[in-house]
Amino acid sequence: MRFNITKEPLQEAGAQITIVLVADKNFDHKWIKHKELLKSLNFKGESEEAVLLAGEKYLYVGVGSFEADELRIAFAKAYKLLKNTAFTSAKTALYIKECSKAAIIGIVEGFTLGSYEFTRYKTKKESPKLEEVVISLESFNEGMIDEKTAADIVRQAQIIVGAANYAKEIVNTAPYDYTPVEMAADAKALSEKLENVTCAIYDEKFLEAQGMGAFLAVNRASAHPPRLIHLTYKPKEAKKRVIFVGKGLTYDSGGLSLKPSDYMVSMKADKSGGAAALAILKGAAELELPFEIHAIIGATENMIGGNAYKPDDILKAKNGKTIEVRNTDAEGRLVLADCLVYAQEFKPDLLIDMATLTGACVVALGEYTIGVMGHNDNIKHELYRAARKSGELVNNLSFNRYLKPLLKSNVADLSNISSSRYGGAITAALFLDNFIEEEYKDKWVHLDIAGPAYVEKEWGYNQTGASGAGVRLNLYYLKELAKEGDK
Ligand code: BES
Ligand code: ZN
Ligand code: ZN
Q1: Is the pLDDT of residue 44 over 60?
Q2: CB of 327 closer than 6 A to ligand 1?
Q3: What pLDDT shows up at residue 485?
Q4: Which atom of ligand 1 lies closest to the CA of 329?
Q5: pLDDT at res. 47
Q6: Residue 201 in domain
Q7: Which residues lie across from 314 on neighbouring strands?
Q8: Do 42 and 188 fall within a single domain?
């Protein structure tokens, strides 16, 4: 979809249909031309309410506020109504001065996120008719934003949601087609397209040489070899080194601790952390952010077979710690343990891992919210603020001294599962904490994206399936971090 900025008033801008947001319940705005008609249709202008007056060439969408996420939802709704019409262009305008930037972001991100469709396996593909959205800079207060600034906001928003949609496509792809080798090929392709990006791909021999016994064990029964993917974006003058580590389980059957059938469906999405890491690197490079950014992904399947790793096995991770396997379905933490140890060798100023790690996180926070864990309250707070801007939902799950001992093992340094059935999201993070060196404790944050990464129903501007969880959140966070450095 193309977005064109114009200084022309909304009325005069050239497009086939006009989209007007309705915030005022009295319909008191010069752009609301069909007051009586709207009333007779019982349209109240409430959030997520929309009316298409196709004959009049007007589309009215209700909003509860002018916050960016409310606008994203509104424009995604507008897209949904226009999708089945023949209109190829639409126009809309900024509404009030205070949120001019948020308005542009809402328009671009709402349309672009809302119009994503996963069609790879559909034999009949319908091409979308709506091609162009004209954004008029007219508002109550004239002259508050120039065309150049507006165009730049559009460009940045397109990069951010483009990255989220890129992650969705990876996550939605079937496990037969998306293996660790395929993920590595995608990473390589990214590095060839992007400036200042390099890519290293490592196979099982490297993992062995590195002593990554935990990662290797998870891969053992898979017909597909594992890959450690390491992408680096290095701009000229980098202010900080930020490393993203992603869980890239291209399929999680549970292993010998096999998942029940109903729970196995959708486990193609267990690569969402890895997909997010790839997408963030893509977005950061396109935005030319002033940080050295790494994406490190542990890609493997977790399968069954005669050579599968077993409950009772004892593994040795890259940092020398031994792990008693008590459940082969707690595999993500094993892969991440080795990847996190590897990541710290590159001396990060900030280390963020993303993983569809636990069902317990979904139980704790619901399907739509990312669980944030770590020792550094400042980073967690900043992530919370970035989440508000990005529209993603996060919540803090705090560590405490009583949960840590639950990972004790009688035969090894630690067990891969907790001895308690409660607090599973936090104990999983505390498992990872065993692989974070003292020096990096305060630089590390763990994001459990098990809920929002893949939801089998539509929500807001998200389609059923993958949502690109973690991508917008971290790109907004990095953008804020870049501003901070400018002060
Ligand atoms: N990939 C799953 C977690 C998951 C569950 C992601 C639901 C998305 C939706 C993970 O590998 C897993 O199976 N975790 C176990 C841990 C348990 C064995 C301690 C779980 O959550 O049940
Ligand atoms: Zn699992
Ligand atoms: Zn898993």
Answers
A1: yes
A2: yes
A3: 64
A4: 13
A5: 95
A6: yes
A7: 324
A8: no
- Residue in the block written with tokens 């730049």: 152
- Residues 66 and 166 both lie in one domain: no
Residue 97 pLDDT grade (very low, low, confident, very high; cuts 50, 70, 90): low
**Ligand 1 neighbourhood includes 311 CB (under 6 angstroms):** no
Of 303, 329, 334, 421, the one to substitute when testing ligand 1's pocket (max ligand atoms within 8 A of C-beta) is: 329
Tell me: do 187 and 334 sit in the same domain: yes
pLDDT digits (tens, 9 = 90+) for 106-115: 999 999 999 9
State which residues form the domain around 415.
162-486
Q: Which atom of ligand 1 is nearest to the CA of 302?
A: 11
Q: Choose the residue to mutate in 358, 418, 427, 449 for probing ligand 1, maximizing ligand atoms within 8 Å of C-beta.
A: 358
Q: What is the pLDDT of residues 428-444, one digit of tens each?
A: 999 999 999 999 999 99
| 200 in the same domain as 123 | no
Which are the contacts of 193, defined by CB distance < 8 A and separation ≥ 6? none
Total count of domains within the chain: 2
- Widest CA span in the chain: 76
- Which helix (DSSP H) or strand (DSSP E) does residue 18 occupy? strand 17-22
Which atom of ligand 1 is nearest the CA belonging to 418?
19
CB 179 within 8 A of CB 164: no
Last residue within a domain, chosen from 124, 139, 154 = 139
Q: Which residues carry out catalysis? A: 259, 333
Distance 144 CA to ligand 1 centre (A): 49
Residue 99 has pLDDT above 90, yes or no: no
- pLDDT class for 101, splitting at 50, 70, 90? confident
User: Closest Cα partner for 184 from 102, 248, 122, 245?
Assistant: 248
User: What CATH number does the domain containing 427 carry?
Assistant: 3.40.630.10
pTM: 0.98
Q: How many CB atoms lie within 10 A of CB 368?
A: 16
CB 359 near ligand 1, within 6 Å: yes
Least confident of 135-139, 150-154, 168-172, 226-230: 135-139
114: domain CATH number is 3.40.220.10
| Within-domain flag for 55 | yes
